[in-house]
Design a protein that fits this description.
Layout: E1 4-9, E2 19-24, E3 31-32, E4 38-40, E5 50-54, E6 58-59, H1 65-80, E7 85-87, H2 90-99, H3 110-119, E8 124-134, E9 146-156, E10 162-172, H4 176-195
Parallel strand pairs: 5-7, 5-8, 6-8
Antiparallel strand pairs: 1-2, 3-10, 4-10, 8-9, 9-10
Amino acid sequence: MNKTILCAIFINALTIFPCVILMTCAPTPALLKTMQPYSISPQFDLSRTWRIAVLPVAGGANSDTGTNQRLVEHAEMQLMKVVNLSVVDRSTVAAILKEQEFSYSGVVDPQTAARLGKLMGASAVMTIRINQVKHDPFFSDSPEQRDASLTVRIINVETGELFYSAQGEGSSFYGAESALTAALDVALLPLLQQGGVK
């Protein structure tokens, strides 16, 4: 049976061109939903250099450590594409969290994120919170299908001010990790578009 839905394709090469097409959905790696809410503070001057530390993923009661780690790695790769953004090395982030005996059991508040970011030598920190991962019963013949949503925030370590906030949603017929990666790409897309890619 043919199932037609509105799909967004995230094309990421030297430039970013989001496009929306109507297609018949055979299983594809990731189907992205567009028009996600986001906000960028006017204080987040993307013409200057920012060093960002990506904190471990929070939320997602059923998500595994490997998936969360790969989401952090994917976020770092996406941030590094933006012209004036650099990323704090993951081993530095892990060492500071261990040194501070920081238990990452939930979404970190802006003040705590700012304090951790300063210790990591960052000018801003990014948090990723998984909101939901679920199977759509409409796709009963595709047991690996998942819909995922997450929230990304970037916080200024000096002031605790929220620089960037975005929600992303993604779907995949290849499991939760693929759907979460798609959701992360959607959440970060406005930042890549406004910051310019290398």
